[in-house]
Amino acid sequence: MTDAYWNQLARDFDVRQARMLFEQRVREFTPIMLSLPETTAIALLDRLATDGFLAKEARESEDDEGATTIETVYVRKLATDRVVDWVVALHGMNTSGAWQESFSWLLGTTWGRAVPVAVYKYGIVIAGVILFWRRRKLREQLREKLAVLASEARARGYNGNPDLIAHSFGTWLFGQLLKHELKRPPEERLTFGRVILTGCILRRDFDWKTIHDAGLVEDVLNHYGTADAVVPWARFLIPDSGPSGRRGFLGDHVINIAAEGYGHSDLFLRDLRQIYDQHWKPFLTLPREELRRESREMSSRA
Question: Confidence band (pLDDT; 50, 70, 90) for 60?
């Protein structure tokens, strides 16, 4: 459902509660849930049903005395949420990656079940990023660790591809890893689920299409700050890098979300809970058939 639709509906109704419930993917509605006068709530739900977003169902129930009553329930048919199996978090350059602990806590308290988060830290890197052999070593170490984690996860019953969130230099390492995976036989490749990139320093024309077509990733969300002062400098120090974390990727194989006025690490430091609830959680959990349909709305709410 688009912003334009909700704005049009708001001319006749207070839609704030209804919209919040829709964004939370609530499946059944009754008038009392909308915090509106009953007649107004029914009119709003009838409008949503007329426009094809809800279906009306009549349900019978018995009270304590055995009398039968009929209640109208408004039903929304949704696909089952995508399951987040396990997650890898990669931090940026010259940081301890404290945000990873906060992100891990959010994941671990979202679904009422354990979601393992592997926090990968490659140490403090200063001059190493300008040295070819050092960058290659960091990429190889990352691959070795991810391969071990994948094996351990499968042994413990986590058979899905890991989702991944990366920041800054971690995005570049991950991108280079994906490019080198393409050179391996398909049966030997590491594969990933949905990927969230922040403060990204990959080139804007990075070939996500080939990587996606090869099955290395499912979907990619690039959440970037328009005031990121670090990203533009990356191309002067690190080959094959670029300002995707300031201006977004080219093409339509990545969901780009611009955070207006945000700096390099502000997504983690300023509004992590809000960012997670509004953008990252829906990206990770929406069924595939809904994700692309909702991606424009996610972008407009940045």
Answer: confident
